[in-house]
Amino acid sequence: MRVTAVDNGPMAENLMYSGLVDHQKVDGYQYRPRQRVDWMVCDIVEKPARTGALIETWIGEGLCREAVVNLKLPMKQRYAEVRKILQRLRESFDARGLKVAIGCKQLYHDREEVTCHLRRLER
Length: 123
Description:
Elements: E1 3-6, H1 13-16, E2 21-24, E3 37-42, H2 48-60, E4 64-72, H3 78-95, E5 99-105, E6 113-121
Parallel strand pairs: 1-2, 3-4
Antiparallel strand pairs: 4-6, 5-6
Helix pairs in contact: 2-3
InterPro entries: SAM-dependent_MTases_sf
């Protein structure tokens, strides 16, 4: 498996020894792959709406087939914020004529975020 790691910061040296990781030292919100990728994983500490917009682009434009993203929750109205983002995603995908499976869970170990899996389905 080959991985493109997109991070402004440094990667652990031992991770790079395999030769299977290509480190792109750029802003994760600006990066676009040269060709479609199978998976996109995003764990950037940022407002959840910005991460929602990122995944809307990646799935919506066919940059990836599946994605796992963490939405960092705001201090107040956490549930309302997640619902709003998921609704916007569904509306955007519907408007594009895309069928996308979306699942979100708040994992036990981290109460400050929800982890979402999105999969673009064939029509």
